Amino acid sequence: MEYVPGPTLRHELERLGSFQLGTALDICDQVLQGLAAAHRAGIIHRDIKPENILFDDACPPPSPVRLP
User: Fold this and answer.
1) Which residues cross the membrane (predicted)?
2) Which terminus of the chain is more exposed, N or C, with fewer CB under 10 A?
3) Pick the residue with more confidence: 64 or 54?
């Protein structure tokens, strides 16, 4: 997997406490789209947790979510 410069979802939740509803829905949508793409390719992640959801700071806001 390539290097992703940015914080994890866990780090951001600890820092901010929570997200606004629209932001939370956007994050969930990106995670679910990533999992769906992986499943279509025959890949099962098996370790989805806040520590494994990464925000890509190299991209302009809103930062896309990456799954390792």
Assistant:
1) none
2) N
3) 54
Strand partners, 58: none
Q: Is the pLDDT reported for residue 37 higher than 70?
A: yes
Phi-psi region of 17 (alpha: psi -120 to 50; beta: other; left: phi over 0): left
CA distances to 41, 49, 55 from 44, in Å: 9, 14, 21
d(CA 32, CA 54): 14
47 is catalytic: yes
Q: Identify the band that residue 60 occupies on the pLDDT scale cut at 50, 70 and 90.
A: low
